[in-house]
């Protein structure tokens, strides 16, 4: 069903103070959607803060030139985050992805709103504006801005374009439909330079990032007659290469480039010993169903979850889950 944007417009018109947040380890869709929505609220004369459970990755800092995004516990206390009229959660509706901000949302008396495009969801006690057919949350924010008669401009438009472009693999994934291109086209018409954004996003790798990718590429293995590819990164890999955890972005998609592969996953060891799992599909396999088995979620072709360590156990757990999925949907003859 189409989103009732008037209901969101009514919430905005009757409240003044807003706190925006997104998921842990924010990607470009999270940061870009937050910046895009924050700029819209500012245009409407509202007071806006952006408070995330994780810091903005260095490679995405260019999306936030005014440094509006802060991390809870560093530059802002949980008590001050509670002091608002409306909490807006963008690009997730899962408690597990909200980190310390989730604790605030559990006790805040403020109204809660969710703007999201993921299928998986929890009951956050919020008014939801969700559309899983949208390629990115950035598409939804862009469409809402148009509904409000405030088309995106300047770095707001840049942030939303980056949100959409990254969640569609620079428009090469199957979720890049006509609606996606129309949203991108409006942003380009407003002045976005895609070549500049592509360079910022994909053509300024650090030497540390390249060294980490080399390690992870060397670890790629295939299973199930070449239908599944996977790789991993250990904590020591980051210390030895001086790479950042965000430098693993995109590696799981690289697994899908192996000829004959229908699905892939990447495991990244966290500081607390847990294992972050990123799952991808290039077939009819629904990896969100697999992720949901372990408290995660996402989309049919892109999902994620957090597993207990050690890494070897997490890998065997996922291999078993993928084996079950392949049995249910055998390889085409």
From TrEMBL:
One of its GO terms (molecular function) is hydrolase activity. It is an enzyme of class 3 (hydrolase). Residues 18-164 form the DDH domain. InterPro entries: DDH_dom, DHH_sf, DHHA1_dom, Oligoribo/pAp-PDE_c-di-AMP_PDE. It comes from the Bacteria. Residues 240-325 form the DHHA1 domain. Coiled coil: none annotated. Its EC number is 3.1.-.-. This is Bifunctional oligoribonuclease and PAP phosphatase NrnA. It comes from Thalassoglobus neptunius. The lineage of its organism: Bacteria, Pseudomonadati, Planctomycetota, Planctomycetia, Planctomycetales. The gene is nrnA.
